[in-house]
What we know:
Blueprint: E1 2-3, H1 6-26, E2 32-38, H2 42-58, E3 61-67, H3 73-85, E4 91-94, H4 104-110, H5 122-130, H6 138-149, E5 158-162, H7 169-178, E6 182-186, H8 193-197, E7 202-205, E8 223-226, E9 230-231, E10 237-238, H9 243-246, E11 252-253, H10 260-280
Parallel strand pairs: 1-11, 2-3, 2-4, 5-6, 5-7, 7-8, 8-11
Antiparallel strand pairs: 9-10
Helix pairs in contact: 1-10, 2-10, 6-7, 6-10
Amino acid sequence: MILLxxxxxxxxxxxxxxxxxxxxxxxxxxxxxxxxEVGNNFASLKYIGNKKKACEYVGIDLEVxxxxxxxxxQELVERIKNLNADKTVHGILVQMPLPEHIxxxxxxxxxxxxxxxxxxxxxxxxxxxxxxxxxIPCTPYGIIELLDKYQINVCGKHCVVVGASNIVGxxxxxxxxxxxxxxxxxxxxxxxxxxxxxxxxxxxxxxxxPNFITADMIKAGVVIIDVGINRGEDNQICGDxxxxxxxxxxxxxxxVPGGVGVMTVAMLMKxxxxxxxxxxxxx
Length: 283
Ligand code: NDP
């Protein structure tokens, strides 16, 4: 079994981005990402911390705008509009979850597409589906980079994606399709899930259920991409795959942690540099 080492690849990507950022700075562009956080959510703060470290490493200026839990939707909209118009800001990201009184879809779609480094804006979602470009959501983007790095060609392969969320399941399905895979998407209403997972040449799982996929649910030689980030019974971080059970049956597998999660942050940095380059072209 070959471990798909996201940590190593993420470091390589960030090293290359560091050089690109130096070149941008020499050309007078200082890449800047603004992260909006509403309500001081504990989990969000951890994710913001990871982004902060990555931005420092790569040389991207990060501003975290913290808003009180009771901030109105209208105020948030106005602040984002200001950021849209601010030429010194290249990337805007709204940390989820938002408080219930704020319409998350409305907020995501206020961000102009060329600063939407998360790739969640409806225009970027459309570009990905139709053309396979635009800003690609960071987690699926990271998965494709990992597959590329390990020369896993999905053309003609049966890729089974378990989980159909807008941030992971749907966009990774689109990207796999773009790479000429045959894609099956499963979700919580799928009947006989194991019948599908057992057919997978490549299995992507993103459901948020600790150690859910076991060896009896996969075929020998499968490539497993484990997106899940959960706390197991021992309170340790684990994925959606029972790693110990599946590792000898799979040909390749991503560890958790050290697989898809670290790649996600690296791809965010890549999207920020791409956004800053739009500034270089005067877009
Ligand atoms: P969501 O809760 O938005 O979506 C979960 C998806 O899984 C839904 O489509 C749901 O089906 C499906 N699902 C849930 N339970 C089952 C089940 N028993 N069998 C089949 N399908 C099921 O989750 P996210 O996509 O946001 O995240 C999923 C996991 O990935 C979480 O652990 C999260 O922490 C992790 N994650 C990791 C990232 C990383 O960087 N590594 C980034 C983003 C997420 P239905 O649509 O029918 O409800």
